[in-house]
Amino acid sequence: METIRFDDLEKLRSKISDQFGPWSKPIAVTQEKINQFADVTGDHQWIHVDVERAKRESPFKGPVAHGFLTLSLIPALTTFDDSATAWKVTGYRNVVNYGANKLRFAQPVPAGASVHARTRLLAVEARPQGTQVTTEVHIHVVGQDRPAVIYESLILYVK
Fold it and tell me: Suppose 24 and one of 77, 114, 118, 119 were both cysteines; which one would form an S-S bond, judging by CB atoms 3.0 to 4.6 Å apart?
């Protein structure tokens, strides 16, 4: 795997692309995981946790994951999965989730489905504290063409 120092702006910028990288390894979004997320966040809306009611009344014909649960899987789907990129950033002191430019929950994630993600680099900017990169992440239900989550994130690699 290619390594790029966080302060090598030219080399990082060479990775900007309109093409997404490879798919990450899939992660199962089980009903148990959905229930645990509901317990942590206090969001016990029936469409997520009441399996029988969701089968009867939901337009999705069963329970679906919280959008923010799916979003929260990004570190497991991207950062720690070397199969999700052909290169990695090194030499920084720490990484800060600096925010987001865009977030869309475009498709539901049914309980029991697996999701995977792919990313692309959109921008690289020097900042006084280090280097800020803008990435676009698409999370898909495995086998689906349309993304479930579209997320444009800002990450700061701190000197």
Answer: 77
DSSP of the chain: -EEEETT-HHHHHTTB-SS--PPPPPEE--HHHHHHHHHHH----HHHH-HHHHHHH-TTSS-B--HHHHHHTHIIIIIT-GGG-SEEEES-SEEEEEEEEEEEE-S--BTT-EEEEEEEEEEEEEETTEEEEEEEEEEEETT-SS-SEEEEEEEEEE-
**Per-residue pLDDT tens over the stretch 47-81:** 999 999 999 999 999 999 999 999 999 999 986 44
- Please, which residues bridge with residue 52 across strands? none
Residue 79 has φ and ψ, to the nearest 5°, of -55, -40
Kindly state the tokens that stand for 37: 């997320």
Does pTM top 0.85 for this prediction? yes
35 touches 64 (CB < 8 A): no
Domains and CATH numbers, the chain: 2-30+66-158 (3.10.129.10)
